[in-house]
Design a protein that fits this description.
Layout (H helix, E strand, L loop, with lengths): L15 H24 L2 H13 L6 E5 L5 H9 L4 E6 L2 H13 L6 E5 L12 E7 L8 H11 E12 L7 H20 L5 H11 L4 H10 L2 E8 L4 E7 L6
Parallel strand pairs: 1-2, 1-4, 2-3, 4-5
Antiparallel strand pairs: 5-7, 6-7
Helix pairs in contact: 1-4, 2-3, 5-8, 6-7
Length: 249
């Protein structure tokens, strides 16, 4: 089963995009707390690692896809010299939380958030120097279409950086990981969030999302070159990178 067929609400006749939008609207108030709690704060280290990898490339304009509450967009503003950072997310609830955080950080002049579908974005071709996604591609209704859309809005020679949760392969770590993600996280999620399915969907979507070479193969199929992956923290997170071919290639 692939991640595109894993939906937040079993038995719901709506498409995945509609279900994901409702799920994130429901959990928006608790989202940041649960991110910190689920990863013991390590998600912040993963974001910093991805941003540091991005620094090696030109990035004056950055698009943060599935921006959520704006954590990565804020970090990009603080740790890079990007002049304009744009975020897009399905969930207006998540965007509202993100806009408050950006205003509190004094970064409203550099970061702009938009509610919209990442599979059909409103920007023209070749708009951004870099595209980032943190923990979002497994929620795409069509993964290949999502990558093609991100490629479209990138400038030739521009880069993509994707952070995504993944399943460890170590025979020692894997059973502990499954116990934690499939049993403990859903229990805590039900206690904190009013959406009882959201944190059961999380481990299901992680298990189903393409990982390592399977993910980079999809990126290549979409048109990216120089695709690579970097596993972090026993393989519980993976950073994927790629580049849009320059006009001379």
């Amino acid at each position: 089963m692939n991640c595109e067929s894993i939906n937040p609400y079993n038995g719901d006749s709506r498409n995945k995009t509609q279900q994901v939008r409702e799920m994130f609207d429901n959990i928006a108030p608790a989202y940041d707390f649960m991110n910190r709690a689920m990863t013991f704060g390590i998600d912040r280290i993963w974001r910093r690692k991805a941003v540091d990898m991005l620094k090696a490339h030109p990035h004056s304009t950055i698009l943060d896809v599935a921006t959520g509450t704006g954590d990565l967009a804020i970090l990009l503003a603080r740790r890079t010299d990007a002049t304009a950072i744009t975020g897009i997310d399905l969930s207006e609830g998540m965007i509202a939380v993100g806009q408050r955080k950006i205003a509190d950080a004094g970064l409203s002049d550099r970061i702009t958030l938009h509610a919209g579908d990442s599979l059909a974005m409103p920007w023209e071709d070749h708009t951004f120097h870099a595209v980032t996604v943190a923990y979002g591609v497994r929620n795409f209704e069509n993964l290949l279409q999502g990558y093609r859309e991100m490629l479209r809005v990138l400038r030739p020679g521009g880069t993509i950086t994707v952070i995504e949760l993944s399943t460890p392969t170590s025979p020692i770590i894997k059973p502990l990981y499954h116990l934690y993600t499939r049993h403990i996280i859903p229990i805590v999620g039900r206690m904190v969030s009013k959406d009882v399915r959201a944190y059961a969907y999380l481990p299901e979507s992680i298990a189903a999302v393409p990982q390592g070479p399977e993910m980079t193969a999809i990126m290549k199929h979409a048109g990216f070159t120089d695709t690579r992956y970097h596993r972090l923290t026993f393989g519980t997170c993976t950073i994927y990178t790629g580049r849009k071919p320059s006009e001379q290639e």
